[in-house]
């Protein structure tokens, strides 16, 4: 069962629709009780980092998610801001992140020479799998996904980088650490590449 975490942010229905077309069981959780029986979790997110963390805390699901992911090793996929929430912290805000993948979220403009780069990074871009990321299995050499972001995940450990892309510099656009995965791009807006990625996650 794929469980989509609905804490008020992200295009929940788009993910539900993909899994229904793939004939993969899916449910939506809006409270801790509805997380019962989750075999895999998807954490979507849009907007600002602090606002997303506040909404997740207010949902009452945070403690249950920590237990499922950290103790029960349930696979989780963070998407867009949902991926950034996996980090320890973000330069965009002041609140701590979930801390499930060591690292921090930084702005493209924090890099020397990129102070004037156009943000957000928006549109289609190539994605290169790193460290054998299973989410990109089957299309590692041709993957293209839709992006919309101004910050990116800077992993504390290179082995946690799951994919890279380029926008002014090479940056980590996916992370993978044990049962925790994240992608900065939007698979729900990325046509067959996105469908393939979501299918791969369901088959982990």
UniProtKB/TrEMBL annotation:
GO terms for molecular function: lyase activity. It is found in: Cytoplasm. The active site is at residues 80, 186, 188. PROSITE patterns: GATASE_TYPE_1. Transmembrane segments: none annotated. Pathway: Amino-acid biosynthesis; L-histidine biosynthesis; L-histidine from 5-phospho-alpha-D-ribose 1-diphosphate: step 5/9. Pfam families: GATase. CDD domains: GATase1_IGP_Synthase. This is Imidazole glycerol phosphate synthase subunit HisH. The gene is hisH.
């Amino acid at each position: 069962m794929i469980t989509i975490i609905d804490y008020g942010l992200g295009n929940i229905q788009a993910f539900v629709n993909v899994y229904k077309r793939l004939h993969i069981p899916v449910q939506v959780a809006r409270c801790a009780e509805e997380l019962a029986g989750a075999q895999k979790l998807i954490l979507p997110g849009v907007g600002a980092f602090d606002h997303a963390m506040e909404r997740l805390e207010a949902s009452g699901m945070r403690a249950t998610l920590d237990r499922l992911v950290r103790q029960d090793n349930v696979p989780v996929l963070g998407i867009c801001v949902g991926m950034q929430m996996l980090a320890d912290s973000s330069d965009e805000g002041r609140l701590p992140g979930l801390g499930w993948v060591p690292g921090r979220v930084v702005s493209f403009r924090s890099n020397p020479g990129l102070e004037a780069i156009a943000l957000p990074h928006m549109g289609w871009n190539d994605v290169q799998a790193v460290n054998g990321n299973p989410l990109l299995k089957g299309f590692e050499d041709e993957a293209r996904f839709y992006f919309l972001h101004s910050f990116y995940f800077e992993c504390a450990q290179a082995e946690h980088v799951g994919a890279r892309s380029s926008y002014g510099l090479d940056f980590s656009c996916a992370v993978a650490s044990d049962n925790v995965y994240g992608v900065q791009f939007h698979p729900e807006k990325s046509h067959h590449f996105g469908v393939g990625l979501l299918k791969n996650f369901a088959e982990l």
